[in-house]
Amino acid sequence: MKLRYIKYFLVITVFAYACKKSEHIQEKVETFLGFQKPKNFPETAYNFANNPVTKEGFELGRMLFYEPRLSRDNTITCGSCHIQSSAFTQHGHDVSHGIEDRLGTRNSPPIMNLAWNKAFMWGGGIYDLDLFPISPITTHEEMDESLENVLNKLRSLDKYKSKFKAAFGSEEISTGKFLKALSQFMLMCVSSNSKYDKVMRKEGNASFTTTELEGYELFKQKCSSCHAEPLFTDNGFRNNGLVPSSINDLGLYTATLLATDKYKFKVPSLRNLKYTGPFMHDGRFLTLDAVFTHYAHEVQATENLDPLLNKNGIRGISINSDEKTKLMAFLNTLNDEEFINNKLLAEQ
């Protein structure tokens, strides 16, 4: 009887310890760590001193990102055009679709690694992440709303008063706090756990296959001047020789009015291409095959064509079928499934 009691006591003790340990692990997993710069990434461009990411600020930003009241008819959220499963793009649409199914003129860019960006939008014009949301909210083809109307809608809801107080110490719902909360959410949209990243950080046994490695070497020779590692963009604006669209989108020129900026668009990151098609500023290419065809055979001598695509009178980039296969293998190592499945970034 005594032996049975001892066994029973030991089982209860072990079970209690296991439960306590499990709770500790769960608590650790759920601990909000804030913004963490990946080891293989450079220093950020965003000034975190003016807007440090907090748990409360991030959670408020996430609510706002998925809040339909940001649009005039209360139907469109930021997440409508920036869908997490598509690496925060509007997959399948060549250009963005706003309220009343209005069509924009450009493809929805991904919300990804924005902490390293100094300029935003395909055609530039915005140079501060905290000001970025003003454009989609007020644009006729997108949300078609005014900031004041948005703030008044939020002020009428007690849940937002308490969220703003938790995040910023006051129930006041102001433009500055509203925009900073949205920035806190977007800053946390970091894609840095692709196979490429794990190889670069020497995590576990991560390594490239022979084909991926050969593709990597080709990438460094043919693509890295514009799509610089590890963000796979130089964050600049370039004319890549596309035939001007029917609306004759002039790109960066619209923001600067400098003739030398005509037809220059922001260099997109090559991360998560598996999820972010269609491609180019107007979504004209449905597949990566079409993108390769453009660079190999279809680059046009448009005004301000980037010199890297016009060397010695030869336009484009020489890429044969074997090289394309190897480059595709490498580009696939830039897909980050952890990012598109991160529950922290999903609508709650």
Helices and strands in order, then pairings?
Blueprint: H1 2-30, H2 55-65, H3 78-81, H4 134-138, H5 147-155, H6 158-168, H7 175-187, H8 195-200, H9 210-222, E1 237-238, H10 253-256, E2 265-266, H11 273-276, H12 288-298, E3 310-311, E4 314-315, H13 321-331, H14 337-340
Antiparallel strand pairs: 1-2, 3-4
Write up what this structure looks like.
It is found in: Periplasm. InterPro entries: Cyt_c-like_dom, Cyt_c-like_dom_sf, Cytochrome_c_Peroxidase/MauG, Di-haem_cyt_c_peroxidsae, MauG/Cytc_peroxidase. Its main location: periplasm. Residues 210-335 form the Cytochrome c domain. It comes from Pedobacter ureilyticus. The chain has 14 helices and 4 strands. β3 and β4 form a beta hairpin. The chain folds into 3 domains: 1-31; 48-190 and 340-345, Cytochrome c-like domain (Cytochrome Bc1 Complex, Chain D, domain 2, Orthogonal Bundle); 195-338, Cytochrome Bc1 Complex, Chain D, domain 2, CATH 1.10.760. The chain has a two-stranded antiparallel ribbon. The longest helix has 29 residues, at 2-30. By secondary structure, it is mainly alpha-helical.
